[in-house]
Amino acid sequence: xxxxxxxxxxxxxxxxxxxxxxxxxxxxxxxxxxxxxxxxxxxxxxxxxx
Length: 50
Description:
Helix content is 20%, strand content 0%. By secondary structure, it is mainly α.
């Protein structure tokens, strides 16, 4: 059975991840010691065609 979202949030916070405040219900988790990933840094063909 998959974990509930509150369990995932708790585990991410415990691992050191944070999320800056954002509009709506979407969150972008980041870790202060890991490099930030953007859509441009993904390889060709990994983003959905749009």
